[in-house]
Amino acid sequence: MSSFNLKGKVAIVTGGNGGIGLGMARGLADAGADIAVVGRNAEKSKAAVAELTSRGVRAIAVAADVTDKDAVGRLVERVASELGRIDILVNNAGINIRKPPHALELEEWSSVIDTNLTSAFLCSKAVHPAMKAASGGKVINIGSMMSIFAASFAPAYAASKGGIVQFTRACACAWAADNIQANAILPGWIDTDLTKRARVEVSGLHERVLARTPAARWGGIDDFAGIAVFLASPASDFVTGTAIPVDGGFSIMG
User: Against a cut of 0.85, is the pTM above it?
Assistant: First the structure.
């Protein structure tokens, strides 16, 4: 369908060299978009670029600290120079430090907030001029089920992901006149390196997730290909400011 065609578009995917970011990048590439993979692990980024290129699109790897304003500026300049334009931004970079609030140090709190939330602000602000000049764009921010719920072991993560939803709504309001749509995706329990560690650190997590999820499984990274294409394509031109769970039904269970 032409409304889902991304040929000629360019997407930046932070944290795009693995996990949910790579799953989304695969979907965008299959729909025709060229991809800038942003990540700190050079080997993972190289492998991701090779895979995406094999799908018939252009792809580049960019190493950047997305919590640093100047680094983000250089990132955007490089993508615009090498790939020609910027139409889609996926703010996916994220970390978690699993401690209760009374055990969390200020430096740990700041690290999570800066990586998960401040980076989304910096990247979104930096791409806005290019999207406005192109008469439109798509910003896709990755929240979490922790945007809805809370957990004793994730105070900074929950705060950052709750903030992502409100930041998304603010961008949607501010940039509607520029034909830029901003939406958030709220992943449920997805099988990634991050949640593999959680299953080690949080006793009984695996069993509780399966018991509560109607789909009776953990999500996979390729479960995010379709929602990425929808929110990046003309099919979602009248969808903005939303927060869409992709969680196998986890969030609807009482």
Answer: yes
